[in-house]
Amino acid sequence: MSIQKELERLEDLIINSNHLLGRALVNEDEAIELLDRIRINLPTALAEAEKLLATRDRLLVQAQQQAQVIVSQAQSDREKILIEAQRRLEESEIVKVAQREAEQIRAQATLEWEKYQTQALDFQQQTRLQAEEIIQNSQTQARSVEANADAYADQVLARLEGDMDRFLQIIRSGRDQLKKS
Q: Which of 80, 87, 84, 77 lies closest to 114, judged by CA?
């Protein structure tokens, strides 16, 4: 059951209660029961915010693992290319041609490795930024929900307190009139 629904029920209780002299007569037990449910559900809303933070942490770890896999694969590919280039150089009858080819392969491998490394770092940075944005949004939402719930509960309690004070004043006035009669 959500905090918002409980707050709406409390509001309905006040609005739909009997009225006397322009004041609402609220069933105290029902009002207290609704406030207790609100208090019970508040930790649930906070737990949902914590779940979002845990999801963000999990996504960040996954992104880092994926980036590491990409970097490892690039290094492995580079090594394979370099080994292949060395093999071709040794097998070649025309050493100069083979050396030029090997240099080109090394350069290409280095460029490819740098490209993969840059892509991995970019991916990791993007994922980190997205995770931080998710965290910030989750924290903002959690603070907003909590602040709204507290403010609304305070308003309802203040209204209830004022109504109770007025009812006590009416009761005292009625008793005073009965004593005078």
A: 77
